[in-house]
Amino acid sequence: MDQTTTDPIIETGQYDKAEYADELERAPHNHELGTSLWYANDHVRVFEVRLEPGERGVFHVHDKTYFWTVVEPGRGRQRLGDGTYMVRDYRLGETKYLEHSSDNALIHDLENIGDTVLRFVTVELLDAPAAAQS
C-alpha cells in the first residue's frame, strides 16, 4: 500500500514525567493495550483503541510483538516513557508492525488531540519470537 510521502509527525519534544509519575510507575505492569479487548487466545490478543476528542489512554507497556491499524484517522499525542513526546496524524489504513520483548519494551500513552474519534485495532502476537537484540 502506497502511503502519502508527507511526514505524519508534526511536533516532538519533552514533557514533565513528574506529572505522570504514578502512571509511569504502574506502566510496566499494565498490559491493557486498548480501550476494549475484543478477542484473546493463547496466540493473540485483539484490542480496540477508541479515543474521543480530548480523551487519553493511560501509560502501558508493549513487551510483545504487535501491530496496529488505523480504522478512524485523527491526530494524537504519544508520550514515551523516556520523557519525550510526538504529535502526529494517523491516516486511515496506516499500519505499523513493532517487535518488542521484556528486554526491549515500549512504554507510552496516547491522547486524542484532534476533533474526531481516533480509532485503531491493535493485535498483540503472544507467541511471536522475541525481537532480536542489537
Characteristics:
single chain; 134 residues; mainly beta; Jelly Rolls; five-stranded antiparallel beta sheet; 1 helix; 4% helix; globular
How many DSSP-defined strands? 10
Instruction: Determine and state the CATH class.
Output: Mainly Beta
Q: Identify the CATH homologous superfamily.
A: Jelly Rolls
| Number of discrete helical segments | 1
Give Rg in angstroms. Answer: 15 Å
What is the rounded distance between the termini?
A: 29 Å
Low-confidence stretches: none
User: Major sheet, described briefly?
Assistant: 5 strands, antiparallel
What's the average pLDDT?
A: 93
- CATH topology group: Jelly Rolls
Count of individual domains: 1
SSE class: mainly beta
Q: Which outline best applies?
A: globular
CATH-derived architecture: Sandwich
Spatial arrangement of strands, main beta sheet: 1-7-6-9-4
Helix content: under 10%
Oligomer classification: single chain
- List the helices and strands in order: EHEEEEEEEEE
